[in-house]
Amino acid sequence: MLRKIIFSVVAIGFTSCVVFSRELKEFDNDVNYDEARIPRYDLPDPLVTAEGKPVTTADQWRNIRRPQILSLFASFIYGAVPVPPDPIAQTYHVIKEDKSFMGGKVTKLDVSIRFKNRKGTAETHVLVFLPNKAKEPVPAFMMLSFDNPRGGSFNLSSSRKGYLRNGVPLGQLVDQGYAYVSVYHGDLVGHNEVSFSGGIHKLFYRDGQSFPKAHEWGVLTANGWTGMRTLDYLETNDRVDASRVAVMGHSKMGKATLWAAAQDQRFAMAISAQSGCGGAALWRRKYGETMAKLNRFPHWLSINARKFNDHEDDLPVDQHMLLSLIAPRPVYVASGTADTWADPHGEFQSANHAGPVYKLLGKKPLSTTKLPPPNQPLLDGDIGYHIRTGGHSVEPYDWQQFIKFADRHLQGK
Hints:
The structure is a single chain. By secondary structure, the protein is of the alpha/beta class. It has one domain: 3-Layer(aba) Sandwich (Rossmann fold), CATH 3.40.50.1820. Helices cover 29% and strands 19% of the residues. The chain is built from 12 helices and 9 strands. It has a 9-stranded mixed β-sheet with strand order 1-2-3-5-4-6-7-8-9, sandwiched between helices. Helix 6 (219-234) packs across helix 7 (252-263).
Protein backbone atom coordinates (compact mmCIF):
# COMPACT_ATOMS: atom_id res chain seq x y z
CA MET A 1 0.00 0.00 0.00
CA LEU A 2 2.81 2.41 0.89
CA ARG A 3 4.46 1.78 -2.43
CA LYS A 4 1.24 2.58 -4.31
CA ILE A 5 0.80 5.79 -2.36
CA ILE A 6 4.34 6.92 -3.00
CA PHE A 7 4.18 6.22 -6.71
CA SER A 8 0.81 7.89 -7.13
CA VAL A 9 2.13 11.02 -5.42
CA VAL A 10 5.24 10.98 -7.59
CA ALA A 11 3.15 10.66 -10.74
CA ILE A 12 1.25 13.79 -9.74
CA GLY A 13 4.05 15.98 -8.54
CA PHE A 14 7.73 15.03 -8.72
CA THR A 15 8.16 18.03 -6.48
CA SER A 16 11.06 17.12 -4.24
CA CYS A 17 14.24 15.14 -4.80
CA VAL A 18 14.87 15.36 -1.05
CA VAL A 19 11.69 13.41 -0.26
CA PHE A 20 10.84 11.25 -3.25
CA SER A 21 14.27 10.00 -4.30
CA ARG A 22 14.81 8.80 -0.74
CA GLU A 23 11.54 6.86 -0.79
CA LEU A 24 11.79 5.53 -4.32
CA LYS A 25 15.18 4.00 -3.79
CA GLU A 26 13.88 1.87 -0.91
CA PHE A 27 11.88 -0.18 -3.42
CA ASP A 28 14.62 -0.54 -6.04
CA ASN A 29 16.22 -3.96 -5.91
CA ASP A 30 18.67 -3.10 -8.69
CA VAL A 31 20.53 -0.31 -6.86
CA ASN A 32 24.16 -1.00 -6.05
CA TYR A 33 25.47 0.01 -2.61
CA ASP A 34 28.45 -2.35 -2.64
CA GLU A 35 31.90 -0.93 -3.48
CA ALA A 36 32.99 -4.42 -4.51
CA ARG A 37 30.42 -4.32 -7.32
CA ILE A 38 31.58 -1.04 -8.82
CA PRO A 39 32.27 -1.81 -12.50
CA ARG A 40 35.64 -1.12 -14.07
CA TYR A 41 35.50 2.21 -15.82
CA ASP A 42 37.75 4.66 -17.65
CA LEU A 43 37.14 8.36 -17.13
CA PRO A 44 37.39 10.82 -20.03
CA ASP A 45 40.45 13.00 -19.64
CA PRO A 46 39.58 16.69 -19.25
CA LEU A 47 43.06 17.57 -20.48
CA VAL A 48 42.77 15.82 -23.84
CA THR A 49 40.85 17.63 -26.57
CA ALA A 50 38.09 16.12 -28.68
CA GLU A 51 40.75 15.78 -31.40
CA GLY A 52 42.96 13.73 -29.08
CA LYS A 53 45.56 16.43 -28.43
CA PRO A 54 46.95 17.04 -24.93
CA VAL A 55 46.13 20.29 -23.14
CA THR A 56 49.31 21.63 -21.58
CA THR A 57 48.69 25.37 -21.16
CA ALA A 58 46.09 27.56 -19.49
CA ASP A 59 45.31 29.20 -22.85
CA GLN A 60 44.57 25.82 -24.44
CA TRP A 61 42.23 25.03 -21.56
CA ARG A 62 40.38 28.35 -21.73
CA ASN A 63 40.13 28.64 -25.49
CA ILE A 64 39.83 25.04 -26.69
CA ARG A 65 39.09 22.35 -24.12
CA ARG A 66 36.84 24.23 -21.72
CA PRO A 67 34.39 25.30 -24.48
CA GLN A 68 34.34 21.72 -25.78
CA ILE A 69 33.42 20.26 -22.39
CA LEU A 70 30.85 22.96 -21.70
CA SER A 71 29.14 22.21 -25.02
CA LEU A 72 29.04 18.48 -24.28
CA PHE A 73 27.34 19.00 -20.92
CA ALA A 74 24.84 21.39 -22.46
CA SER A 75 24.02 19.12 -25.40
CA PHE A 76 23.94 15.71 -23.72
CA ILE A 77 23.11 16.21 -20.04
CA TYR A 78 21.55 19.43 -18.79
CA GLY A 79 20.30 21.05 -21.99
CA ALA A 80 21.31 24.38 -23.49
CA VAL A 81 19.42 27.63 -23.03
CA PRO A 82 18.14 28.57 -26.51
CA VAL A 83 18.24 32.06 -27.96
CA PRO A 84 14.78 33.58 -27.38
CA PRO A 85 12.78 34.63 -30.46
CA ASP A 86 12.62 38.18 -29.11
CA PRO A 87 14.74 40.06 -26.56
CA ILE A 88 13.66 39.54 -22.96
CA ALA A 89 13.22 42.63 -20.80
CA GLN A 90 14.55 41.96 -17.30
CA THR A 91 13.52 44.31 -14.52
CA TYR A 92 13.96 44.47 -10.74
CA HIS A 93 11.59 45.77 -8.10
CA VAL A 94 12.08 45.83 -4.33
CA ILE A 95 8.68 44.74 -3.04
CA LYS A 96 9.53 45.11 0.62
CA GLU A 97 12.45 46.36 2.69
CA ASP A 98 12.82 45.55 6.38
CA LYS A 99 15.77 47.31 8.01
CA SER A 100 14.93 45.98 11.48
CA PHE A 101 15.26 42.24 10.81
CA MET A 102 17.13 40.25 13.47
CA GLY A 103 16.94 43.09 15.97
CA GLY A 104 18.26 45.63 13.51
CA LYS A 105 21.37 43.66 12.52
CA VAL A 106 20.00 42.86 9.07
CA THR A 107 18.13 44.50 6.22
CA LYS A 108 15.81 42.01 4.52
CA LEU A 109 14.85 42.71 0.91
CA ASP A 110 12.08 40.97 -1.02
CA VAL A 111 13.06 41.51 -4.65
CA SER A 112 10.98 40.71 -7.71
CA ILE A 113 12.83 39.85 -10.93
CA ARG A 114 10.50 40.04 -13.91
CA PHE A 115 10.98 38.81 -17.47
CA LYS A 116 8.89 39.80 -20.46
CA ASN A 117 8.79 39.52 -24.23
CA ARG A 118 6.01 38.99 -26.76
CA LYS A 119 5.82 35.29 -25.83
CA GLY A 120 4.80 36.00 -22.24
CA THR A 121 5.94 37.02 -18.77
CA ALA A 122 7.54 35.30 -15.79
CA GLU A 123 8.59 36.42 -12.33
CA THR A 124 10.65 35.16 -9.42
CA HIS A 125 10.99 36.49 -5.88
CA VAL A 126 14.45 36.60 -4.32
CA LEU A 127 15.24 37.29 -0.67
CA VAL A 128 18.39 39.25 0.19
CA PHE A 129 19.70 39.61 3.76
CA LEU A 130 22.28 42.36 4.21
CA PRO A 131 24.48 43.04 7.29
CA ASN A 132 23.65 46.54 8.51
CA LYS A 133 27.03 47.11 10.14
CA ALA A 134 28.96 46.73 6.87
CA LYS A 135 30.45 49.95 5.50
CA GLU A 136 31.62 48.44 2.19
CA PRO A 137 30.01 46.06 -0.31
CA VAL A 138 30.05 42.54 1.15
CA PRO A 139 30.53 39.06 -0.33
CA ALA A 140 27.49 36.81 -0.37
CA PHE A 141 26.28 33.26 -0.11
CA MET A 142 23.62 32.67 -2.75
CA MET A 143 21.59 29.53 -2.09
CA LEU A 144 19.54 27.88 -4.81
CA SER A 145 16.80 26.90 -2.43
CA PHE A 146 13.74 24.71 -1.93
CA ASP A 147 12.26 27.32 0.43
CA ASN A 148 9.41 29.44 -0.89
CA PRO A 149 10.09 33.11 -0.03
CA ARG A 150 6.38 33.60 0.60
CA GLY A 151 6.38 31.03 3.43
CA GLY A 152 7.68 30.96 6.99
CA SER A 153 11.06 29.35 6.37
CA PHE A 154 12.79 32.72 6.58
CA ASN A 155 11.45 33.69 9.98
CA LEU A 156 13.88 33.48 12.86
CA SER A 157 14.14 30.11 14.59
CA SER A 158 12.67 29.95 18.06
CA SER A 159 14.93 27.05 19.06
CA ARG A 160 18.31 28.14 17.67
CA LYS A 161 19.43 31.70 18.19
CA GLY A 162 20.76 33.38 15.08
CA TYR A 163 19.28 30.78 12.73
CA LEU A 164 16.44 31.00 10.27
CA ARG A 165 13.79 28.32 10.47
CA ASN A 166 15.26 26.67 7.39
CA GLY A 167 18.57 26.10 9.23
CA VAL A 168 20.61 28.92 7.71
CA PRO A 169 22.98 30.44 10.34
CA LEU A 170 22.13 33.99 9.35
CA GLY A 171 23.53 35.51 12.51
CA GLN A 172 26.96 34.02 11.92
CA LEU A 173 26.93 34.94 8.23
CA VAL A 174 26.22 38.61 8.83
CA ASP A 175 28.58 38.78 11.81
CA GLN A 176 31.35 37.54 9.53
CA GLY A 177 30.51 40.05 6.85
CA TYR A 178 28.39 38.09 4.39
CA ALA A 179 25.06 38.76 2.77
CA TYR A 180 22.71 35.82 2.27
CA VAL A 181 20.60 35.46 -0.87
CA SER A 182 17.86 32.86 -1.36
CA VAL A 183 16.77 31.89 -4.88
CA TYR A 184 13.58 29.80 -5.01
CA HIS A 185 13.53 26.78 -7.31
CA GLY A 186 9.81 26.82 -8.07
CA ASP A 187 8.98 30.23 -9.53
CA LEU A 188 10.32 29.98 -13.09
CA VAL A 189 9.98 26.28 -13.84
CA GLY A 190 7.50 23.58 -12.89
CA HIS A 191 8.99 20.32 -11.64
CA ASN A 192 6.32 18.02 -13.09
CA GLU A 193 4.91 17.03 -16.47
CA VAL A 194 1.93 19.37 -16.26
CA SER A 195 3.59 22.63 -15.25
CA PHE A 196 7.09 22.19 -16.68
CA SER A 197 6.60 24.44 -19.72
CA GLY A 198 4.45 27.06 -18.03
CA GLY A 199 7.22 29.23 -16.59
CA ILE A 200 10.29 30.78 -18.16
CA HIS A 201 10.48 28.27 -21.01
CA LYS A 202 7.58 29.79 -22.91
CA LEU A 203 9.50 33.04 -23.41
CA PHE A 204 12.11 31.06 -25.36
CA TYR A 205 9.81 29.03 -27.60
CA ARG A 206 9.71 29.68 -31.31
CA ASP A 207 6.31 30.17 -32.89
CA GLY A 208 4.50 26.84 -32.85
CA GLN A 209 6.86 25.33 -30.26
CA SER A 210 5.40 24.04 -26.99
CA PHE A 211 8.22 21.93 -25.55
CA PRO A 212 12.04 22.10 -25.40
CA LYS A 213 13.97 20.31 -28.13
CA ALA A 214 16.04 17.27 -27.18
CA HIS A 215 19.20 19.31 -26.62
CA GLU A 216 17.49 22.20 -24.83
CA TRP A 217 17.22 23.03 -21.15
CA GLY A 218 15.51 21.07 -18.46
CA VAL A 219 14.67 21.91 -14.85
CA LEU A 220 18.25 22.00 -13.52
CA THR A 221 19.41 24.39 -16.21
CA ALA A 222 16.40 26.62 -15.53
CA ASN A 223 17.19 26.65 -11.81
CA GLY A 224 20.81 27.56 -12.52
CA TRP A 225 19.67 30.24 -14.97
CA THR A 226 17.54 31.76 -12.21
CA GLY A 227 20.68 32.02 -10.07
CA MET A 228 22.51 33.76 -12.90
CA ARG A 229 19.72 36.29 -13.30
CA THR A 230 19.83 36.88 -9.55
CA LEU A 231 23.54 37.60 -9.92
CA ASP A 232 22.56 40.17 -12.57
CA TYR A 233 20.44 41.87 -9.91
CA LEU A 234 23.21 41.72 -7.30
CA GLU A 235 25.45 43.61 -9.73
CA THR A 236 23.00 46.51 -9.37
CA ASN A 237 22.94 46.39 -5.55
CA ASP A 238 25.75 48.57 -4.21
CA ARG A 239 25.68 46.83 -0.82
CA VAL A 240 26.82 43.51 -2.33
CA ASP A 241 30.16 42.76 -3.97
CA ALA A 242 28.87 40.72 -6.90
CA SER A 243 32.42 39.63 -7.76
CA ARG A 244 32.53 37.66 -4.49
CA VAL A 245 29.39 35.52 -4.58
CA ALA A 246 29.47 31.84 -3.60
CA VAL A 247 26.61 29.92 -5.20
CA MET A 248 25.49 26.88 -3.25
CA GLY A 249 22.80 24.23 -3.18
CA HIS A 250 21.78 20.95 -1.59
CA SER A 251 20.57 17.77 -3.32
CA LYS A 252 18.80 18.69 -6.56
CA MET A 253 19.85 22.30 -6.09
CA GLY A 254 23.43 21.13 -5.60
CA LYS A 255 23.24 19.70 -9.10
CA ALA A 256 21.92 23.00 -10.44
CA THR A 257 24.58 24.90 -8.50
CA LEU A 258 27.51 23.11 -10.10
CA TRP A 259 26.06 23.53 -13.58
CA ALA A 260 25.36 27.22 -12.97
CA ALA A 261 28.91 27.86 -11.77
CA ALA A 262 30.34 25.90 -14.68
CA GLN A 263 28.50 28.13 -17.15
CA ASP A 264 28.75 31.52 -15.46
CA GLN A 265 32.29 32.45 -14.50
CA ARG A 266 31.06 35.49 -12.57
CA PHE A 267 30.34 33.19 -9.61
CA ALA A 268 33.41 33.36 -7.41
CA MET A 269 32.85 29.97 -5.74
CA ALA A 270 30.57 26.95 -5.87
CA ILE A 271 29.41 24.78 -2.96
CA SER A 272 27.66 21.47 -3.54
CA ALA A 273 26.04 19.70 -0.60
CA GLN A 274 25.19 16.04 -1.30
CA SER A 275 24.37 16.69 -4.96
CA GLY A 276 24.99 13.07 -5.98
CA CYS A 277 23.93 11.80 -9.38
CA GLY A 278 23.88 14.61 -11.91
CA GLY A 279 25.85 16.70 -9.43
CA ALA A 280 29.28 15.85 -8.06
CA ALA A 281 29.09 12.02 -8.17
CA LEU A 282 30.69 10.13 -11.06
CA TRP A 283 28.17 8.59 -13.47
CA ARG A 284 30.37 5.63 -14.31
CA ARG A 285 30.47 4.24 -10.77
CA LYS A 286 26.76 3.33 -11.05
CA TYR A 287 26.46 3.45 -7.27
CA GLY A 288 23.21 4.60 -5.65
CA GLU A 289 21.22 6.83 -7.98
CA THR A 290 22.02 6.36 -11.68
CA MET A 291 21.11 8.11 -14.92
CA ALA A 292 18.06 5.89 -15.37
CA LYS A 293 16.89 6.58 -11.81
CA LEU A 294 17.40 10.31 -12.16
CA ASN A 295 15.51 10.41 -15.44
CA ARG A 296 12.40 9.08 -13.70
CA PHE A 297 12.01 12.68 -12.59
CA PRO A 298 10.83 14.13 -15.90
CA HIS A 299 12.74 16.96 -17.49
CA TRP A 300 15.31 17.56 -14.76
CA LEU A 301 17.89 16.85 -17.46
CA SER A 302 17.61 17.30 -21.20
CA ILE A 303 15.73 14.76 -23.31
CA ASN A 304 19.09 13.76 -24.82
CA ALA A 305 20.26 12.51 -21.41
CA ARG A 306 17.74 9.67 -21.56
CA LYS A 307 19.82 8.06 -24.31
CA PHE A 308 22.38 7.23 -21.64
CA ASN A 309 20.05 5.37 -19.27
CA ASP A 310 22.04 2.26 -18.29
CA HIS A 311 24.76 3.38 -20.74
CA GLU A 312 26.74 5.87 -18.68
CA ASP A 313 30.02 4.59 -20.13
CA ASP A 314 28.97 6.03 -23.49
CA LEU A 315 28.86 9.56 -22.10
CA PRO A 316 31.58 11.79 -23.58
CA VAL A 317 31.98 13.43 -20.14
CA ASP A 318 31.76 12.59 -16.46
CA GLN A 319 31.16 14.81 -13.46
CA HIS A 320 34.81 15.42 -12.60
CA MET A 321 34.78 17.42 -15.82
CA LEU A 322 31.87 19.50 -14.55
CA LEU A 323 33.93 20.42 -11.48
CA SER A 324 36.86 21.13 -13.79
CA LEU A 325 34.80 23.75 -15.60
CA ILE A 326 34.64 25.73 -12.35
CA ALA A 327 38.45 26.02 -12.22
CA PRO A 328 40.36 28.11 -11.31
CA ARG A 329 37.61 29.29 -8.95
CA PRO A 330 37.28 27.39 -5.67
CA VAL A 331 34.74 24.59 -5.40
CA TYR A 332 33.58 22.70 -2.31
CA VAL A 333 31.89 19.29 -2.27
CA ALA A 334 30.16 17.95 0.85
CA SER A 335 28.90 14.40 1.49
CA GLY A 336 27.19 12.43 4.27
CA THR A 337 28.12 8.95 5.48
CA ALA A 338 24.50 7.74 5.47
CA ASP A 339 23.58 9.39 2.18
CA THR A 340 24.43 6.35 0.08
CA TRP A 341 21.92 7.33 -2.64
CA ALA A 342 24.19 10.32 -3.45
CA ASP A 343 27.36 8.13 -3.56
CA PRO A 344 29.73 9.97 -1.19
CA HIS A 345 32.79 8.13 -2.53
CA GLY A 346 31.80 9.04 -6.09
CA GLU A 347 31.46 12.69 -5.07
CA PHE A 348 34.94 12.61 -3.56
CA GLN A 349 36.47 10.91 -6.60
CA SER A 350 34.94 13.53 -8.85
CA ALA A 351 36.61 16.26 -6.79
CA ASN A 352 39.84 14.28 -6.83
CA HIS A 353 39.87 13.81 -10.62
CA ALA A 354 39.22 17.52 -11.21
CA GLY A 355 42.62 18.12 -9.61
CA PRO A 356 44.78 18.06 -12.78
CA VAL A 357 42.85 20.98 -14.28
CA TYR A 358 43.25 23.00 -11.09
CA LYS A 359 46.97 22.21 -11.05
CA LEU A 360 47.33 23.27 -14.68
CA LEU A 361 45.78 26.63 -13.78
CA GLY A 362 48.11 27.11 -10.82
CA LYS A 363 45.61 26.11 -8.15
CA LYS A 364 45.81 23.55 -5.36
CA PRO A 365 43.85 20.27 -5.68
CA LEU A 366 42.75 18.00 -2.85
CA SER A 367 45.55 17.06 -0.47
CA THR A 368 44.74 13.33 -0.67
CA THR A 369 43.51 10.85 -3.24
CA LYS A 370 41.79 8.72 -0.60
CA LEU A 371 38.35 9.38 0.89
CA PRO A 372 39.05 11.14 4.21
CA PRO A 373 37.55 9.93 7.49
CA PRO A 374 34.23 11.46 8.55
CA ASN A 375 34.33 14.95 10.03
CA GLN A 376 37.90 15.64 8.88
CA PRO A 377 37.43 18.35 6.23
CA LEU A 378 39.92 19.14 3.48
CA LEU A 379 40.00 22.93 3.52
CA ASP A 380 43.49 23.98 2.49
CA GLY A 381 43.16 23.72 -1.30
CA ASP A 382 41.12 25.34 -4.05
CA ILE A 383 39.04 22.16 -4.10
CA GLY A 384 37.46 21.49 -0.70
CA TYR A 385 35.72 18.39 0.56
CA HIS A 386 34.25 16.82 3.66
CA ILE A 387 32.15 13.81 4.54
CA ARG A 388 30.33 14.14 7.83
CA THR A 389 28.42 11.58 9.82
CA GLY A 390 24.72 11.63 9.06
CA GLY A 391 22.31 11.66 6.17
CA HIS A 392 20.78 13.81 3.48
CA SER A 393 20.58 17.31 4.94
CA VAL A 394 22.55 20.50 5.51
CA GLU A 395 23.68 20.62 9.12
CA PRO A 396 25.46 23.27 11.23
CA TYR A 397 28.68 21.28 10.74
CA ASP A 398 28.38 21.71 6.98
CA TRP A 399 27.84 25.45 7.32
CA GLN A 400 30.91 25.79 9.52
CA GLN A 401 33.11 24.27 6.82
CA PHE A 402 31.51 26.31 4.03
CA ILE A 403 32.09 29.54 5.95
CA LYS A 404 35.71 28.63 6.73
CA PHE A 405 36.34 27.87 3.06
CA ALA A 406 34.66 31.12 1.97
CA ASP A 407 36.55 33.13 4.61
CA ARG A 408 39.83 32.10 3.02
CA HIS A 409 38.83 32.48 -0.62
CA LEU A 410 36.41 35.40 -0.53
CA GLN A 411 37.76 37.42 2.37
CA GLY A 412 41.42 36.39 2.57
CA LYS A 413 41.15 35.40 6.22
